[in-house]
Design brief:
By secondary structure, this protein is α/β, with parallel strands linked by helices. It contains seven helices and 13 strands. A hairpin with a 4-residue loop joins strand 9 and strand 10. The longest helix is centred in the C-terminal third of the chain and has 18 residues. It is globular, with a radius of gyration of 17 Å.
Length: 239
């Protein structure tokens, strides 16, 4: 694998939140906010945009990978700040509303989110532009919507052909020095996780970026993703 892939693509700015990493996608046309983090993370995003020499009028879109609180908690505040439309899969509006119905061990995660919404005085965000699998968005040189359900029913990744990069959101994570699939308490539909892994891997993106990681090293993250895919195939072989 080409060692130059370890270089972070131009215009990709990570913003570390309290629990997840949000991203700014910047080019000559403006900036896109990819995930909004927990409610207190909204100020981190606006500060990062200011450090880039941009302001609220430069924001073209707010894109959400899914509706969990640590990824969409600052949506309402950022929408008010910049006025940009919110893009997300319609199946995750219930997560944004705090009304999602989950089963099994995912109820534990739902209870934790409910506590977080109360603690942070969360205000629900609303989806302005529902996303569809395979849709091409005119941002950052082009972003293709890749529906990867399992973590939530509307969970989406985004593929940039220009940068040969796939944002995999919470399909997997490098968290606390451990590469892992999302824990069952945060997974709405476990039976859909393995097919989503295969779908993401089949794209063949040379760069992989999740939402929970340490060093922003595209080469290392791609290697971690591939190793986890191999592990998943051993556990759930293709039939």
């Amino acid at each position: 694998m080409d060692s130059t892939l370890a270089r972070w693509p131009t215009g990709l700015i990570p913003v570390r939140g309290l629990m997840s990493v949000m991203h700014l996608l910047i080019d000559a046309t403006g900036v896109v906010i990819l995930d909004t983090g927990l409610p207190p993370d909204a100020s981190r995003i606006t500060l990062a945009i200011a450090h880039a020499g941009l302001g609220p009028r430069d924001v073209r879109a707010i894109i959400l990978t899914h509706g969990h609180l640590d990824h969409a908690g600052g949506t309402a505040e950022l929408k008010e700040w910049c006025g940009a439309p919110v893009y997300a899969h319609s199946l995750d509006q219930p997560h944004l509303d705090g009304t999602a119905q989950v089963r099994g061990r995912a109820r534990i995660g739902a209870a934790l989110e409910a506590a977080g919404r109360a603690m942070f005085r969360y205000r629900p965000g609303k989806i302005d532009a529902p996303l569809a699998d395979g849709e091409e968005l005119p941002f950052w040189g082009g972003l293709r919507v890749v529906h990867l359900p399992g973590h939530t029913l509307g969970h989406c990744g985004f593929y940039s052909a220009k940068h040969d990069l796939l944002f995999t959101a919470d399909l997997w994570a490098r968290f606390m020095m451990v590469v892992q699939v999302s824990p069952p308490i945060f997974t709405a539909a476990p039976e859909l996780v393995a097919p989503s892994f295969r779908k993401a891997r089949a794209l063949g993106a040379r760069r992989i970026v999740p939402n929970h990681y340490g060093k922003p090293d595209a080469l290392r993250l791609r290697r971690s993703f591939e190793n986890l895919c191999d592990t998943m195939e051993k556990r759930v072989p293709v039939v």
